[in-house]
Predict the 3D structure of the following.
Amino acid sequence: MVFVSTAILVAACTASLGATPGGETVALRTPPRIRVSERSNLSVRENGRYTGLFTREVTGHASEQTSGEYSGRFFVYEKIRRDAHEVGRLIDRSTAGSLGICARTLFHGDAPYPFIQDFLALPPGPIVPGTSWKAQAWTLINPRSDEAPLRLPVTVAYEYKGREEWNGELAARIEAQFATRYPLPPSDDPDAPVVDYAGDVTLVQGSHRVTVMLPDSGTQLVFLRDTVNERYQFADGSTMEVQGHVLIFVSGGEPAAPRISAAIEKHLDRDRTHDVSVDRTDVGVRLTIDALRFRPDEAVLLPDESPRLSGIADVLGPLSGVRFLVVGHTADVGTREGRIALSLERARVIAEELTRRGISGDLIDLEGRGATEPVASNETEAGRARNRRVEIYVVED
């Protein structure tokens, strides 16, 4: 299975959750900084035979740009396991897109992430326990390829269960369920949703039961647990069945980027860390190490790069509450597959150098982007040298 990740653009609508004379007003809260995490744990059967346990974690970070709008990026970490032994490889991807959240609806938009969109559709007025309603949403189906997903309309039945204690605080609980069916039945309604899909999924049948928790306060904004039971058929006649659950966490708070970037700038020894720039991005504070010197076409650092890396590790080591994303880039030389592999291996080398200098490897993530994001022309040696760089993102954990 391969799934595509996306950047996010969140339209925020700040609101509260509290009692009113006619019931309770239930709405989404959005802070200046948002973190979205989706964790899948699904058993997979292909053509009636069990093939393994599919696990995936997607983590996205979004920062406020203008009034109520956020931008960021999702990162996907995916593996297939069978009886605790790996039967597949970890795939890391990140791409661009847009998505939204407002006071009444989660994940509004048409991006390929998360898998459920236009979800929740909260009533505009106060509600009481037992209140039920229906609304249309969308689910994204992409069971075994990295092609564009099938964006399938679904009708969701909701019921408000009331407020209860969850993780030590009061939260509103909503239960939801929907069925997935494809192809869609014929309809004479001119406003009926239209599915524009040309992939190899020919049939979908399944059910989803979702528990939603909306805490009154704190950093946790929304929690969803989706229990999935779904079957797919493909153009070649093969089938796949998945069962299990998907968890989605949305949390947030005040951005730490100003504090982190100030600490890095204050303690960065420029005598040892030449050609290292620091800037803020939607993902986190980024350190760019320009013109790293490796052996030609290899992921072997030249010895005189050691002082730069020691200076960077001295600054990053004392930071708390963060993770480090190390991203490798190459010049546009050779094949695409070769560039991706080389950029990942060079990122891995930098990560290993940081761990030798005291940074925990458990806090480091790796990504290789090849030559997809050049910062200079590849027509000159100077430009190619600039494109051979490694970026270290300091991300709020």
